[in-house]
# Entry
Amino acid sequence: MDSTREVEVVVVGAGQAGLSGAYHLRRTGFEPDRDFVVLDHSPGPGGAWQFRWRSLTYGKVHGMHALPGMELTDADPTRPSSEVIAEYFAAYERAFDLRVRRPVDVRAVREGAAGRLLVETSDGVWSTRALINATGTWDRPFWPRYPGQETFRGRQLHTAQYAGPEEFAGQRVIVVGGGASGTQHLLEIAPYAAATTWVTRRPPVFREGPFDENLGRAAVALVEERVRQGLPPRSVVSVTGLPLNDAVRQGLKDGVLDRRPMFDRVTPDGVEWKDGRRLTADVILWATGFRAALGHLAPLGLRGPGGGIRVEGTRAVGDPRVHLVGYGPSASTVGANRAGRAAVRDIRRLLAAGEPATAA
# Structure
């Protein structure tokens, strides 16, 4: 018996971008389970936030923007952001009756019959006329490769595995990466560790003053141009620089954020540079970011020669049925909200046309 279920729209992922898309579908007359489904592989609400380390309190979160239609109010800044945001997302799903199905792993999206897409999951197959992909990046931590990496006798871990600073007590720690996570790790770990060292490929750029609307638009435009060209997206923070707050200023003053250039190889007991300098370490913490989790879209052949998927707005240029939200310029929380609304607007036009929309 054919167990394939049909809907108009499948939303993959229930983080900020996916919930925004589901909200706008619901608001414009789509019924959950009948017209659309939201599939999420996480064990509970909260998107990637539920996996963040406990010492990342809500007060340390940069620019968490409320989901559309429901403000996040009276959040305790001293509580872990993983708890605050998971509870908020759970309340949001209940308030708008989004009926997120979890845990469901989406394994592949491929061409179906009559211009529809087949979404193959751990919970069966869905046939859909349009797809909102909101899978984010948390599941694809980026590990750079350096000579000798496999010989290191200490511990190597990525930001995705970071649980808090206490586990580094008395250890010599090298933190790799010039983004916000790298600086947060260093500032947290330094009081516990025997020694910390910060290495980055490029000198970090610190940004003075407020991040106003004009700066935000300019940064998003640069990221947007990359995805329009089919290049892998860069993070918005890679364009804007690191904000200078009191903690960062103190870290610079204390020497915790005294950056060294990237080492050239890993040794069994540390790292070394071409000029002969060596550094002994117990831990290498790779705060080297994430890549978009898009492997399930591979059967559609959307990835171009530039290494990314060409996107106009939220729509995949190679297939108008596929919208990527929370990707590239919409990876910020406010950008994800706007992208969810834009994707639903385009999908409504597509479905109203009534003709099967196949890949270009």
Remarks:
- The chain has a mean pLDDT of 90.
- The chain is about 25% helix and 20% strand.
- Helices lie at 16-27, 81-95, 180-189, 213-228, 236-240, 246-254, 333-353.
- The radius of gyration is 22 Å.
